[in-house]
Write a structure and sequence with these properties.
The chain is elongated and about 85 Å long. The termini are far apart. Helix 5 runs parallel beside helix 7 (159-165). It has helices spanning 11-23, 40-50, 70-75, 91-95, 110-122, 148-153, 159-165, 182-197, 206-214, 220-234, 251-260, 265-279, 284-291, 295-306; strands spanning 30-33, 57-61, 76-77, 88-89, 99-103, 124-125, 134-135, 139-144, 168-171. It has 307 residues and is an alpha/beta fold. The strands form 3 sheets. The chain has a 5-stranded parallel sheet with strand order 2-5-8-1-9. A two-stranded antiparallel sheet has the order 3-4. A hairpin with an 8-residue loop joins strand 6 and strand 7. It contains 14 helices and 9 strands. The protein folds into 3 domains: 11-173, P-loop containing nucleotide triphosphate hydrolases (Rossmann fold); 179-245, Helicase, Ruva Protein, domain 3; 250-307, Arc Repressor Mutant, subunit A, CATH 1.10.10. It is 48% helix and 10% strand.
């Protein structure tokens, strides 16, 4: 398995990758913390790839199975447990000497968290329905969106489980803290999508780059990848901010507000011009390029409003 390519030169991001490479050869659990879409799964795949693991990389989220089946999914089922129930290995067994990347651990009931802790301590699983203990060698990568300590305070995560997991912790910075990586990632995602749809990669205007770098990116790299996919599919050449979907600007909510306020087209145009001006820090030259009008026309409009 070749993991997804890592892209970025931000110092904090490079430090994360260097730490991941250093700990990849160990077998201790790894705790990966970061907001949604920041690349926790990709980093777990790199840790698996760089290390000596000889088994598969398995990824699983506790929300993928009903609560009644969680224990069977994790630890397996012993033959004869119930009528017509076949023997089945659990995730730890199926991972072999590979890596099990598990998210949403805090959603497990407390007694199942305790069972997971026993597996980490003894390196053995007992299938549902009994049978002899089975040795497991898989490495566990646990992913969390929130601070694990905060989850403990809320009563969602057992403190003893956190103590066992928290041997190697890697915190992944959100994209908003890596603004210089945004153009690099945008170009990478755009090229990736254009190759997939057999389109020549369009150029990105400086105005588009400025808009991307100033965005908060609450969905992080995943959100950026989806925005670049949109541009690859429907954008012109060169790409400009006008090619971005309304959702990028929160346009759906703003449009709904404008309709409720019964704004005229003239009032809506004025509001849009001022929004663009705010996004480029009041730079009228950039705003005029963004709007597709001359700087003189923009200046004339603003002067007309002031009168």
């Amino acid at each position: 398995m070749t993991p997804p390519r890592t892209v970025g030169r931000d110092p904090a991001f490079r430090a994360v990758m260097q730490l991941a490479r250093r700990v990849a050869r160990e077998s201790s659990p790894v705790l990966l913390v970061g907001p949604t879409g920041c690349g926790k799964s990709h980093l777990a795949q790199w840790i698996h790839h760089w290390g000596p693991r000889r088994g598969p990389f398995l990824e699983w989220h506790t929300g993928a199975a009903p609560e009644t089946l969680l224990e069977a999914e994790l630890f397996g089922v012993h033959s004869g447990t119930a009528t017509d129930v076949a023997e089945r290995p659990g995730l730890f067994e199926r991972a072999g000497q590979g890596t099990l990347c598990m998210g949403g651990m805090e959603a497990l009931p407390s007694h199942q968290q305790a069972a997971l802790l026993r597996v980490l301590e003894t390196r053995q699983v007992e299938r549902v329905g009994g049978g002899r203990p089975i040795q497991v060698l898989a490495r566990l990568c646990a992913t969390f969106l929130d601070s694990p300590e905060l989850l403990v305070q809320r009563g969602a995560l057992r403190p003893d489980l956190l103590y066992r997991l928290d041997v190697i912790r890697i915190e992944i910075p959100p994209l908003a803290q890596r603004p210089e990586d945004v153009p690099i990632l945008a170009d990478f995602f755009l090229g990736q999508c254009c190759r997939r749809i057999h389109r020549e990669k369009p150029r990105m205007s400086q105005e588009l780059m400025d808009a991307l770098k100033s965005h908060a990116w609450p969905g992080n790299c995943r959100e950026l990848a989806h925005r670049m996919e949109h541009l690859a599919l429907v954008g012109a050449d060169p790409l400009t901010p006008a090619d971005l979907p309304p959702a990028f600007w929160g346009g759906g909510e703003r449009l709904e507000t404008a309709i409720r306020q019964r704004l005229t087209l003239s009032e809506l145009r004025d509001a849009y011009m001022h929004e663009v001006l705010a996004r480029v820090g009041g730079n009228r030259t950039q705003a005029a390029k963004w709007l597709g009008i001359s700087r003189k026309a923009l200046w004339s409009h603003l002067r007309g409003e002031a009168r």
